[in-house]
Design a protein that fits this description.
Layout (H helix, E strand, L loop, with lengths): L2 H22 L4 H27 L4
């Protein structure tokens, strides 16, 4: 995967994670935890994309 692909997937995962957390609120802690995990995954994907961009997709 390239830099832009990783960043796009990261943004999507972050957004979906934030929506899950908002929908869950305090009534569904399992969904809130799932949303937080997905948001964190998205943040990591964006970092991975940034590293690939800095290293020229050699990662």
């Amino acid at each position: 995967m390239g830099e832009l692909t990783d960043k796009a997937k990261g943004l999507a995962n972050e957004a979906i994670g934030n929506v899950k957390q908002a929908v869950a609120g305090k009534n569904n802690p399992d969904l809130a935890a799932e949303g937080k995990a997905q948001e964190t995954k998205g943040e990591a994907q964006q970092v991975k994309g940034s590293v690939k961009g800095a290293l020229g997709d050699k990662v």
